[in-house]
Amino acid sequence: MTATLAPPREPGSPASASSRRLAERVFRVREFGIVAVLIVFVAITAAIQPRFLSITNIQFVLVDATIFALLALGETIVVISRNVDLSVGSVLGISAFLTAQLASQAHGLPLPLVFLAGLGIGLGFGAINGLLVSLGRVPSLVVTLATLYIIRGLDVLIVGGSQVVPSSYYPSFLTISKATVGGIPDLAIVVAVVIAAGAYCLRSFRSGRELYAIGSNPDAARLAGIPMGRRIFTAFALSGAIAGVAGVLWASRYGTVDSTAGASYELQVIAAVVVGGVAIFGGSGSVVGAAIGALLLQTINSALYVLGVSPDWDQAIAGFLLLVAIVLDRFISLRLTVSLRRRSARRGQ
Amino acid sequence: MGHADEAGDRRADARPGDARPGDAGRQEAGRQEAGRQEAGRQEAGRQEAGRQEPVRRAGSEDGAGSEDGADSPAVLSLRHVSKSFGAVRAVIDGSIELRAGEVHALVGENGAGKSTMVKILAGVHQPDSGTVLVNGGPTVLHGPAGAIGAGLAIIYQEPTLFPDLSVAENIFMGRQPLRRGRRIDGREMTTEADALFARLGVRIDPGRIARGLSIADQQLVEIAKALSLDARVIVMDEPTAALSAVEVARLFDVIRALRAGGTAVLFISHRLEEVFAICQTVTVMRDGRHVLTSTLTGLTAGDLVRAMVGRDMPERIPGERGAPGEVRLTVQRLTREGVFTDVSFEVRAGEIVALSGLVGAGRSEVARAVFGIDRYDAGAVTAGGRKLRKASPTAAMTAGIGLVPEDRRQQGLVMEMSIQQNVALASLSALRRAGIIRASAEHSFAADWAVRLSVKYGRLTDPVSMLSGGNQQKVVLAKWLGRRPSILIVDEPTRGIDVGTKADVHNLLDRLAGEGIAILMISSELPEVLRLADRILVMREGRLVAEFTQADGSEEGIMAAATGQLEAEAR
Amino acid sequence: MDSDLNAMAGNAAMTPEHIAGEEPGPSPGASGGWGRLRPAMRWESGLVVVVIVIAIMGSALSPEFLTANNFFNLGLNTGEIAIMALPMALIIISGEIDLSVESTLGMSSALLGVLWADHWPMLAIFAVVAVVGVLAGAVNGLLVTRVGLPSLAVTIGTLALYRGIALILLGPRTVANFPAFYTNAGTTAIPHTDLPWSIGIFIVLAVIFAIVLHTTPFGRSIYAMGDNAEAATFAGLRVKRVKTSLFVISGLASALAGVLYTFRLNTAVQDNGTGLSLDVVAIVLLAGVSIFGGKGSIGGVFLAVLAFAGLQNALLLTNFNQEATGLVTGGLLLISVFVPNAAMFVRYLRQAARRATRRPPSEPALSLPRKDT
C-alpha cells in the first residue's frame, strides 16, 4: 500500500552555502559597482582632459572628498540604526567658526587641542541629539531637523556678520589640509585610516553589530535585550563629534569661515551615503561604501568642472544619481529576496 | 519559475510602515498562507505526514520515554491561576505542568484562554490568583525578563529575526562569542551555531543572511536561539500553521531532539493529529477553565474534541434557508504561480460555501485574488454577471463583493479612527452629498449597523481600539454589510473572539445567507464549518482537492482531505 | 480583549502601552471628520494660546506690531510658505513627506525667468510652469507608489535634481524685469483689504483644503492610509492614486509659490527658495500634524502659519538677527513634538502608579535587562 519512504532531503545542504554566496556577492557588487563607476568616470574624464589627473587636481579632490567622507562616516553610523542626522551641516559650520577663532586668536595653541575643541563642540551637540532621540521617542528626522535650525541659528548669532580670514590663522593650521606625503594629502590618508577603523569596529564589536540589528528590526532588537537607548545615543554623539572634527578641517581647507559654512551639507552627505549602498531604512551598508559614495560625488563635481561643464549641473547630477541608486537598490533587493526564498523553498522540499 | 508569494517577501522583512497592499504581514495568530508549493514535491513527504493516522490510534508515535512524564519534576507550572481584563474573564481556573523532556499540548477553541495562559507563563501578565511555580517553587515572574531568566523561550508564529544579518548573528545577537580585545569571534560563532543546529538535527548555513529564509527555517533559527539561551521550556505557538508537510516532519524531528535533550516543550495547536503525533501529555481548556490534563495514551481525538467543545458533534444551525439561487460568483481556473493552482468553484445566492484546509493551503490568497488585492496569473473571476478586472478592489466592490479580511487589526480596521468612521469607511461615496460626507448620515448609518449587529460600545465616536475583539470583528462586518454586498467573503470570521460573539456572528452569517447573499467562508475551525456551510471545499497546497456537501461532510473527512491522508492511503 | 498570542509577537510586543491596554491619547488635530472634537481641539487650543502670546509679546516689543501695515508685511513674507504648507500637511497626514518643494519652487522660478527673458507671453509661461509643477509632483508620486521607494529618500533626490534643473535653466543669470502688473500684485494688497495676494490665495486654498480634508471621502481616505495603509487598501481605498495625486498637488502648489515668490522679489535667480522645505515641514509639524501620519488638521496649519509668521515678525522688530530666526523655528519644532509625548509619558506614569497601588508589587519589567557586553 505505502511505498518505501524516501527520507526528506536534508536542509542545509550545499544549496544554502550558495545562497549565502549569492547574497554576499550581491552586496559586494554594490560596493564594487560604485568603485567601477568611479574608475570609469575618472578614465573617461582623464581621456578627454588629462589635466584632470594632475597632481594638484587630485589633491584638491581628495581633500574635499575627505571632509565629506568623514561626514559620511558619521552619518552612516546613524543611518544604519534606522535614524538620520540632518544637523551635521550646522554642526560643521559652528565648529568651523569656533575653532577657526581659536586658531586665529590663540596662536600658541597646539594643533591637537584645536581638533579636540572641534570634537568637543560636535560631541556636545551630538549628545543633545542623541538624548532627544533616545529618550523622547521622537523620530530623528524631526529632532535633527529642529537642531539643524537651532544650531545654525546659534552659529549666526555667534558669528554675527563677521568672518575669520586665513591671514589670521597661524600657519600650521592652514597647512593641515595641504600637507602631503608622496603626493597624497596627509588628510586623505588619515581619514582613510579612520574610516577603515570605523568599518572594523562596526564589523567586529558587539555594539556595532547591535546598531545594524536596531536598524534591521527594532522590535526584535528590543526583544533581544539590546540597550537601544544607549546605542542610539552613542551613534548620534559620534556623528556630532565627527562633524565637529570635519568643521576644523573645513576651516583649514577653505580659510574663510562665516556663518554659511556647511550649509546644505546634510543632504549631500545623505546622498553620498545612499549612493554608497547604505539602506535609507538601516540594517545594511558599510562605511567604506559611504566613503566611496562621497568620493564619487566629489569626483563627479570635479570632473564636470574640468570638462568645462558648468558647475550648475552638479546638483542635478547628484540628485539624479541618488534616485538611480535607490531605484536600483530596490530592484536588487527584491530580486535577491525572491531568489533567496526560491532557493530556500527548493531546499526544504 | 515564477514570483514567490508577495506576502512572503515581507515576512522576514517586517518594517513598520512598510505595509503594502496584499501584505499578509503581521497576522494575528500568524496564520500565514505561505503557499510556496513547488511543483516537484517529494511524495515521501506527503506519505510521511499521511503516516500519522492519529484519530483512532491510541497513544503517540514516540514510544521511548513517554511514561516519564508524571515522575519528572515540573520545570514550570501554573496552578489554579485566574486572570481578568476588566469585565472579560480570560482565565477562570487554569493549570498546567511542564516537565523536562516532555512535549505537552495545549488545546482549546479560540477564546478558551490558551493565549492568556501563555502570557502568564511568559511573564507578560501577572495572574490575579493562583501560583506560578518554577522547578516546583512558587515564584513571581517579573515581566518577560523574569520568564527568560526562568528559562522560558517562546517561538512565535512570526519569527522576529534581523533580515539583514546572518543566521549566526541572529542567534547570538548581544551575546556573540568574543576573542581578545572584546572583538567578535566570527569563527567561534559559526562553530557554535553549527553545533546548535546539529543538536537539532538540521543543517542551516550560519553564514547566510536571514532574509529569504522560509518560515520553517526561521523557526529553526528561533529554536536554535532558544537553545543557546539554555531555555528549559520552549513554547511553540501553532508552529505548523505555515509549514509544508515535509517541513512539519522536520520540525517534529527537531522537537524529538529537544525532548531527548531534556527540554520541556509546550505545543499549542488546533491540529489534533499533530498533537497525537508528537506530544505525550495534553491539557484542554474550555471557556477559561482547565478541563482535562492527561497523557495521550488511551485518548482519542473524539475525547479531545468533546473536552474542547463540551458536546459531541457540532450542531447544524436549524436554518430556514431555502435552496440556493442563481450563481453569483464564479471562479475559473484561478492560478497564481507558486501560490495556488487551477482553483475553480461557484457560490450561489443564499449559499454558504466554506473554504477549508490547513493554514498555508492558499485559501486567503485565493480570496484576496478574487477581491483584487493580489494579482493572479491565469484564470478568471466572474461576479454579477461580468468578468472582473484583476487586481482591482474597486471592480470587485462595484460587482458587489465584500471581503472581511483575516487580520482585523492590521487589515480590517483603522485603529486610530472611531467606530463610526470605520463602519463608514467603505461606504463614503454613498454617504456624501455634493462631495461632502454628511456627518448625520454617517452617524445614523453606523448607529443602525451597530444595533443590527449588537455591537457593544460606549459612543460611536470612541476609537475602535477600545472595543473587544469580538466587537471589533462586528465593526468590520458592519463596514461591509453596509454596502449591501451580494457576495460576502469572510476570512476566519470568528478568530480570537469570545464564545458569545462567535454565536452572534454565526447566526448573522446564517441570516445573511437566508436573505440571499452568497457567502464564501474561509475557516480553519471545523465545527464552525460544519455548522454553517452548505458546501465545503478543501484546499491543500494550492489546489482544490475535495468537495463535501453538508450531508456528507465530517471533521475527519475534511481533515483527511486537508492533510492528504486519503490520498496517501490510497496508494 | 484579544486573547491572541501573536499580539505578543507583534510590533508592540513587550512595550508598556501594549501591556497596559491602550487608551486613546490626546491626539493633535482631528482624525478626520468633525468627530472627537475634544482631543482635536486640545492641540489647536494650545496653538491659539501660542498665537495670542506671540501677539502680546510682539506688541509689547513694538507698537508697530499689531498694525495693518505690519500684518501686510507678515503676510508677504510667509505667503508662499503658507501655500506650500497646505499640500505638505496632506502628504504628511497620508504617511509620506515631500522635501523637494523648495526645489520645485526654484525650478518654476527659473523657468519663469528663462521663458520671460525669451519673450514668451506670460500666460503661456504660466501654463508651462503649471505643467512642470505637475510633472515634478508626478515623478515623486510615481517613484513612491509604483516603484515603492520611501518618500524621504525620493524627495531628497528630487530636491537635488530639481534644484539642479533650476541651475541648468537659469545658470548664473538673474532675470529681474518682470512686468509691473505682476510685480505690483506681489507687493501691494488686495484692493479693500490689507492682505497681500499670496495670503489671499492661501486663505482661499486653506478653505478648500479644509473642506476636502475634513469632509470628503478623499480627505477621509488620507487619514485612513496615514494610519494604516494596508487596512485602507482592504477597504477599497485607492491608496496609490491618492498619494500620487497629493504629490502632484504639492508640485503644483510649489510651482504657484515659485511664481508668487519671483514676482514678489521681482527676481528670478537659481537659488530662490533654498531652505524653504524645512520651514514648510516645521510649520506643518507645529500645526499638530503627526509625523507618523493619520492625524492633523487644516485649522492647525492656519494657526501654525500665524504663529510662525508672528514669531518671525516679532523677532524682526526686535532686530533679532534675521538669519538666526531658525533658532526659534527649531525650538518651536522641538516643543511641538515633545509636548504630546510628554503628555503620554505623564499619563503612563500615572497609570503605573495606579497599578502599583492596586496590586501586589510585581510589575512587569519596563524593558528587558541589558545583556552584559
How would you describe what is shown here?
The complex is a heterotrimer of chains A (349), B (571) and C (373). Chain A is an all-alpha fold and 349 residues long. Chain A has 13 helices and two strands. Chain A is globular and about 65 Å long. The two termini of chain A are 23 Å apart. The model of chain A is unreliable at 1-15 (pLDDT under 50). Chain B contains 20 helices and 24 strands. Chain B starts with 5 loop residues before the first helix and ends with a helix. In chain B, helix 2 packs across helix 8 (245-260) and helix 6 (186-200) crosses helix 7. Mean pLDDT of chain B is 80; it is low at 1-69 and 567-571. Chain B is of the alpha/beta class and 571 residues long. Residues 1-37 and 359-373 of chain C have low confidence and may be disordered. Chain C has a single domain (43-337), classed as Orthogonal Bundle (ABC transporter involved in vitamin B12 uptake, BtuC). With 373 residues, chain C is an all-alpha fold. In chain C, helix 3 runs parallel beside helix 14 (298-317), helix 5 runs antiparallel to helix 6 (122-145) and helix 9 packs across helix 10. The chains are: A mainly alpha (349), B alpha/beta (571), C mainly alpha (373). Chains B and C meet through helix 3, helix 4, helix 12, helix 13 and strand 20 of B and helix 1, helix 10 and helix 11 of C.
Give the domain tally of chain C.
1
CATH architecture of chain A: Orthogonal Bundle
CATH topology of chain C: ABC transporter involved in vitamin B12 uptake, BtuC
Biggest pleated-sheet summary of chain C: none
Number of strands of chain A: 2
Q: Would you list the SSEs of chain A in sequence order as H and E?
A: HHHHHHEEHHHHHHH
Kindly report the average pLDDT value of chain A.
Answer: 83
Share of helix of chain C, binned = 55-70%
Most extensive contact? B-C, 87 and 62 residues
Count helical runs of chain C.
15
Q: Structural class, from helix and strand content of chain A?
A: mainly alpha
Instruction: State the low-pLDDT regions of chain C, or none.
Output: 1-37, 359-373
Cα-atom radius of gyration of chain A: 23 Å
Number of H- or I-type helical stretches of chain A: 13
